[in-house]
From TrEMBL:
Residues 128-347 form the ABC transmembrane type-1 domain. This is ABC peptide transporter, inner membrane subunit. GO terms for cellular component: plasma membrane. One of its GO terms (biological process) is microcin transport. The chain crosses the membrane at residues 9-30, 132-151, 163-189, 219-242, 277-304, 324-350. It comes from Salipiger bermudensis (strain DSM 26914 / JCM 13377 / KCTC 12554 / HTCC2601) (Pelagibaca bermudensis). It comes from the Bacteria. Keywords: Cell inner membrane, Cell membrane, Membrane, Transmembrane, Transmembrane helix, Transport. InterPro entries: MetI-like (IPR000515), MetI-like_sf (IPR035906). The keyword Cell inner membrane applies. It is a multi-pass membrane protein. It is found in: Cell inner membrane; Cell membrane. CDD domains: TM_PBP2.
């Protein structure tokens, strides 16, 4: 297993390199870079050229070129355009900027946001609590509901309970997360019905003044509706996956043998079937968490006015804030690859009979 993990760790390097090369190359052909946006702002505000600081230093990303390449730059002093290029590092060729970026990333230096005067790492850490809250609680709740519900549906397969719960699950899976979020706001956050939960934010304005029990209660009060909205799709998928896994195991010969020996149904289900049936469900926990962590967070965060990584990525893409785009891409790509290794380790932990080295051989 050690050799397998080492190979997977070594594969992270070329995989991350490929991700960065592809995305850096694509960015070179995207119009409307940060310099063009600053030129548009300056022209809209008048001749305000002095005292500008891009805040990015020599950040190796974005689209370069001379001052003649910038649309809408007529009438602006060439010195101003050259100063912008130096501030953002666009006075260097793309290949040099790319290798400078990689060298900085190897030293865990992800640069500074062009427009926020804050380092990329600090910006990610600032937004991380919101996304972790959504991802972690949504995943835990989905598992807590889906596993017992899926087991009960498998045991009563074809019965009334299985039928009506399947209908509920299908409806839950079909409802888009953003539509369900809006419905929750209308019903429970001061829409047309009840004002039970707050409309926005992760905590109240007076959160710092609250006692620790009150802070915990306030936190869960604010996060309740966003978590429910982001849980709905994962809950439906996991329930059906759990049911199908149990149905596959229940039909196998070892289950019939256990029943023939006189074991109780509970002992058969939780002593023999559970471990095999839950292999794919439990081992997939890291991947499910990362999926909820990354996917769909933008819409949920926007609807509930939460300032998380989803909105950060969207705003960085719109503003062409290349240090934030490439820094978060590198960090999240690394997290995703490490989580893939953790998922394999979870398989081995749940079922020690699995040996990835023998499978590769």
């Amino acid at each position: 297993m050690g050799a397998y993990i080492l190979r997977r760790l070594l594969l992270i390097i070329p995989t991350l390199l490929g991700i960065m090369v592809i995305n850096f190359t694509l960015v070179q052909f995207v119009p409307g870079g940060p310099i063009e946006q600053i030129i548009a702002q300056v022209q809209g505000q008048g001749d305000v050229f002095e005292g500008f600081a891009g805040g990015g230093g020599e950040v190796a990303s974005g689209s370069g070129g001379g001052s003649d390449e910038y649309a809408g730059a007529r009438g602006l002093p060439p010195d101003f355009i050259e100063e912008l290029e130096r501030e953002f590092g666009f006075d260097k060729p793309p290949v040099e900027r790319f290798f400078n970026m990689l060298w900085n990333y190897m030293r865990l230096d992800f640069g500074e946001s062009y427009f926020r005067s804050i380092s990329v790492i600090d910006l990610v850490l600032e937004k991380m609590p919101v996304s972790i809250s959504l991802g972690l609680w949504s995943t835990l709740i989905a598992y807590a509901i889906s596993i017992p519900l899926g087991i009960k549906k498998a045991v009563q397969d074809g019965g009334p309970f299985d039928t009506w719960t399947s209908g509920v699950i299908i409806v839950a899976y079909a409802i888009p997360g953003f539509l369900f979020a809006i419905l929750l706001l209308v019903l429970f956050a001061g829409g047309s019905y009840w004002q039970i939960f707050p409309l926005r934010g992760l905590t109240s304005d007076n959160w710092e003044m609250l006692s620790w029990p009150a802070k915990i209660a306030d936190y869960f009060w604010h996060i309740a509706l966003p978590v429910i909205a982001s849980t709905i799709a994962a809950f439906a998928t996991l329930t059906l996956l759990t049911k199908n896994s149990f149905l596959d195991e229940i039909k196998k010969h070892y289950v019939m043998t256990a029943r023939a020996k006189g074991l109780t149904e509970r002992r058969v289900l939780y002593g023999h079937v559970f471990r095999n049936a839950m292999l794919i469900v439990i081992a997939g926990f890291p991947a499910v968490f990362i999926g909820v962590f990354f996917s769909g967070s933008l819409i949920i965060e926007t609807i509930f006015s939460l300032d998380g990584l989803g909105r950060l990525g969207f705003e960085a893409a719109v503003a062409r804030d290349y240090p934030v785009i490439f820094g978060t891409l590198f960090i999240f790509g690394l997290i995703g690859l490490v989580v893939g290794i953790l998922s394999d380790l979870m398989y081995v932990l749940v079922d020690p009979r699995i040996d990835f080295e023998k499978r590769e051989g």
